[in-house]
Write a structure and sequence with these properties.
The complex is a heterodimer of chains A (100) and B (207). Chain A has 100 residues and is an alpha+beta fold. Chain A has four helices and three strands; from the N terminus they run H-E-H-H-E-E-H. The longest helix of chain A is centred in the C-terminal third of the chain and has 22 residues, at 78-99. Chain A is elongated and about 55 Å long. Chain B has one domain (27-206). Chain B contains seven helices and no strands. Chain B has helices at residues 4-22, 29-51, 62-99, 106-131, 138-153, 159-177, 182-206. Chain B starts with a helix and ends with a helix. Classes of the chains: A alpha+beta (100), B mainly alpha (207).
Chain lengths: 100, 207
């Protein structure tokens, strides 16, 4: 029998990173400030984890200017979406096993 | 590796976040009920304007009368729309304070765009047709475009809104078959249906 822990995604084990990817999976795109508000995170903390997700190519970044103010929008990539699905399946499997 | 309860918490937070980030939860079902009441009031006003007994003097300027009636009916429809939107906004503001959420965020902006594209194009389309004298098309077209707008915006709203949208479209198509009974269909679509669906949503989400 295979161990479901192996299927857990190391990057997404972190709560905030998992939350970011879940919001981006449910929406076409989301900008930094809206994410910050929704997740009640600090600038620094959110930026760090966004960087980590970007480095793994789980999300893509698009910087632009809206009314002369910098606006950073994030999207989940195909790779990120697959990782998110696999991680969800693994968590589900774990919880099922626990309940047996 | 984390303890299993942590994974359950993870899933819980994902579920709530995905819903909160997509759906505009501040919409109050009661504002739907009130919109329906306004529509009923507007429809009864329209009824008296259209079917008021004609005096002998009216007979001569039938053409002019028709135009003023149309303008008055448009005015009533716009009045109902503005009153409904204002009520909806005021009640959403109140509910969002209670829920501790912001009323003006990414979701509500998206909702507004999704709603206004079909609504505005339909509204302008109907106005153009009215100006060209196609009065009978107004009711079916407004019901159908309104239904399309609701379905287009339903991703950001409660599921019931989508069903309301389908119902409005079906009603609009039926009313196109029975031309001339427009006011009754309009009253049912914008009055009765809003009250019924508003009550369902109020029972389900506001209590």
């Amino acid at each position: 029998m295979k161990n479901p822990f192996e299927n857990l995604d190391k990057i997404l084990e972190h709560r905030l990173r998992l939350q970011i990817v879940s919001v981006l999976s449910a929406n076409e795109s989301y900008d930094f400030n809206a994410l910050k508000e929704l997740l009640a995170a600090t600038d620094g903390n959110l930026a760090t984890h966004l960087k980590a997700l970007e480095r793994e190519k789980y999300i893509s970044v698009n910087k632009s200017f809206v009314d002369r103010k910098p606006n950073t929008r994030y999207k989940v990539t195909e790779r990120g979406r697959n990782a998110f699905k696999k991680h969800l399946d693994a968590m589900e499997e774990l919880i099922k096993q626990q309940r047996k | 590796m984390k303890p299993n309860t942590a994974y359950e918490e993870d899933i819980q937070s994902i579920r709530s976040l995905m819903e909160r980030s997509v759906k505009f939860l501040s919409l109050s079902g009661l504002s739907g009920v009130l919109a329906g009441v306004y529509a009923l009031l507007g429809a009864s006003l329209a009824y008296t304007i259209i079917y008021q007994p004609a005096t002998p003097f009216d007979y001569h300027d039938q053409g002019i009368k028709e135009i003023t009636i149309t303008y008055r009916l448009i005015l009533i429809a716009v009045g109902v729309l503005v009153a409904s939107l204002a009520t909806g906004y005021a009640m959403a503001l109140r509910k969002s304070k209670k829920l501790g959420t912001k009323i003006w965020d990414t979701t509500s902006k998206r909702l507004l765009i999704n709603l206004s594209v079909p609504l505005l194009s339909g509204g302008i389309f109907i106005l153009i047709l009215l100006m060209q004298g196609y009065y009978l098309i107004a009711v079916p077209a407004s019901l159908i475009f309104y239904g399309l707008a609701l379905i287009n915006a339903s991703a950001n709203l409660f599921d019931e809104v989508r069903y309301l949208g389908y119902t409005e479209i079906i009603l609009g198509l039926i009313s196109a078959v029975f031309m001339g009974y427009g006011l009754y269909f309009w009253t049912f679509g914008f009055g009765v249906l809003h009250i019924v669906y508003g009550l369902v949503m109020y029972k389900k989400y506001d209590q």
